[in-house]
Amino acid sequence: MAQTADRDGNRALRARLDDVYGQYQRLRSDLDQIQRRLTDLRATAESADGLIRATVGPRGQLVDLHLDRHIHRDLDPTELSREIVATTAAAAAKATAEIERLMAGYLPADSGPMRFLRDDDLGSLLSRQDAAVREAGRDGE
């Protein structure tokens, strides 16, 4: 009876490893295309009044800013600054969403990199490693 359970467990483990390896092979074969798409990624947002348009790259870095020529009549410098920041942040959020969409086909939703994209917390990238170190420390006690 124990041998049957072991064999069933081994089959399930083998199936899971085959699945993970298949995902890895697909990711590896698509890596160049993913890299190009990430490098070329641009996201644009426009202010509610249409006077500001910000475009960011894949890391949320501002790559283009368009200010309507009438903007100085409608906004004082403080308001203008706030609107530029808000519009750029909206474009950065769009870029992050596009990266998440692109990577969703390759990484599990609960993986560290995907959590990092959502919460921008470096701890998300390290959580699995931290857990492994804690577990290894308990095993050594």
Automatic annotation (TrEMBL):
<dbReference type="GO" id="GO:0003677">
    <property type="term" value="F:DNA binding"/>
</dbReference>
<dbReference type="InterPro" id="IPR004401">
    <property type="entry name" value="YbaB/EbfC"/>
</dbReference>
<dbReference type="InterPro" id="IPR036894">
    <property type="entry name" value="YbaB-like_sf"/>
</dbReference>
<protein>
    <recommendedName>
        <fullName>DNA-binding protein YbaB</fullName>
    </recommendedName>
</protein>
<feature type="coiled-coil region">
    <location>
        <begin position="17"/>
        <end position="51"/>
    </location>
</feature>
<keyword id="KW-0175">Coiled coil</keyword>
<dbReference type="Pfam" id="PF02575">
    <property type="entry name" value="YbaB_DNA_bd"/>
</dbReference>
